[in-house]
Amino acid sequence: MSKYRKLSFVCAVTASFVAAPAYAEKFGLGRTAHADEIAAWDKNVSPDGVGLPTGSGSVEVGEELFSDYCAICHGDFAEGVDNWPKLSGGADTLDHEDPLKTVGSFWPYLSTTWDYINRSMPFGNAQTLEPDEVYAVVAYILYSNDLVEEDFVLSSDNFLDVEMPNRDGFILDDRAETEYAIFSKPPCMVDCKDSVEITMRAAVLDVTPEETRARQIQEMIKATNPNARYTDTEEPVAAEPAAETGELDPALVAAGEKAFKKCKACHQVGEGAKNKTGPVLNGVVNGVAGSSEGFRYSKPMMTAAADGLIWNDEELAAFLKKPRNYMKGTKMSFAGFRKEGDIVAVIAYLKSFP
Ligand code: HEC
Ligand code: HEC
Q: Which of 55, 143, 148, 214 could form a disulfide with 152 if both were Cys (CB 3.0 to 4.6 A apart)?
């Protein structure tokens, strides 16, 4: 399991940090990390509860937080949206051919859930939750797995009382003694087959990346449309018609900033924004679709871009209402805004980043 390995890797790095002065001196590089720097970074929470901060959070509060920060990818009930991980379900499937491994069905210790979420979620906006909030979402995930009742409150006091269903499902890895000898015969390196023939080509299997084609289309857009949001063009990029930006209603922009919380997991805007799961959205309104430098768009998005799609208010509103209906096959896994007002507001907010 990679996440358990990751945790032990972190411990190993901690150990080497402590031993670092010798290296620093030997190579004349860097400096020894201060204790508070290590403490800020070393947030391990172990199965025995070591590292767990004091605090608590209820299922009730967790449900609200989960709906705001997690449901967009993991579903309202932690059941998972599309291919984003499912965090609930799968009980009693571990001995099936295709088991469903979730926090509830598979993870042996609750501390791993706490540590993982505290360290890396919400995806794209990691380490923004307070300890009490982490307790609350962990409580909610337990509830989604039918492991606690709806009035449950998880805290640093009762944390170790929670027993995960699969706590005894792991065994020590003894393959080095039991299996290695059987599988480690000297490998054949020459003339291993009598005849060799090619049965399938990568192009046919459709595993060859279409980087070149995507790049060609981007070049083409760049050559024909001055509004394309490239940063590496030789000529200065033509400015947007600025009139509209001047007339933005500040209250609407503020409402849009709030609605943009739903987008933040995948998109950045503003100065220093980078492509994440989704492309940078600076200048997206009235800009050419599919033109954020270096972002790998889906085929349908690139096709629409090549056909000259411009994200004006109407197109953008239609897209944000139901991305998948508007553009079949888009990579954007966002269900869509239910409220028309959110769409108008978010577009106004995006306009404030020309
Ligand atoms: C933008 C999408 C997104 C959002 C929002 C998000 N996650 Fe995740 N989450 C992921 C992805 C992707 C992974 C798998 C990461 C990996 O395997 O490296 C993941 C993995 C997890 C896992 C581990 C699941 C497993 O079985 O390996 C947990 C637990 C989790 N997320 C909890 C949360 C919580 C709690 C929140 C809200 C505070 C949240 N996530 C918000 C995308 C998201
Ligand atoms: C789960 C991740 C995710 C969320 C949440 C999300 N997006 Fe996206 N978005 C993407 C991806 C991925 C693409 C690229 C789509 C493609 O290539 O088909 C995209 C594309 C776009 C585009 C087209 C950009 C371009 O360069 O042509 C716009 C506009 C956009 N998103 C706006 C939004 C807004 C506004 C929200 C919030 C309401 C949002 N997105 C929420 C992942 C996301």
A: 148
Query: What atom of ligand 1 comes closest to residue 265's alpha carbon?
Result: 1
C-alpha 230 – ligand 2 centre gap (Å): 18
Contacts of 192 (CB under 8 A, 6+ apart): none
Q: Are 320 and 338 in contact (CB under 8 A)?
A: no
- Per-residue CA distances from 128 to 42, 134, 275 (Å): 16, 10, 19
**152-161, pLDDT tens digit by residue?**
999 999 999 9
Tokens of residue 308, six digits: 């000259």
C-alpha distances (whole Å) from 273 to each of 79, 218, 281 are: 31, 20, 8
Q: How many Å lie between the centroid of ligand 2 and the Cα of residue 294?
A: 15
Amino acid at site 270: G
pLDDT digits (tens, 9 = 90+) for 122-175: 998 899 999 999 999 999 999 999 999 999 999 999 999 999 999 999 988 998
The pair of three-digit structure tokens given for residue 275, joined into one six-digit string: 């492509």
The rounded distance, in Å, linking the Cα atoms of 130 and 133 is 5
The radius of gyration computed from the CA coordinates of the chain, to the nearest angstrom, equals: 25
- Amino acid making up residue 33: A
Ligand 2 centroid vs 292 CA: distance in angstroms?
11
* C-alpha pair distances (Å), 18 with each of 1, 34, 105, 188: 27, 10, 37, 44
**Residue 118 · residue 43 · CB < 8 Å:** yes
Q: Assign residue 65 a region: left if phi > 0, alpha if psi is -120 to 50, beta otherwise?
A: alpha
- Give the span between the Cα atoms of 186 and 189, in whole angstroms: 9
Question: Could you tell me if 243 and 351 are in contact, meaning their C-beta atoms sit under 8 angstroms apart?
Answer: no
Mutate to test the pocket of ligand 2, among 83, 221, 267, 285 (most ligand atoms within 8 A of CB): 267
Among the atoms of ligand 2, which is closest to the Cα of residue 291?
A: 26
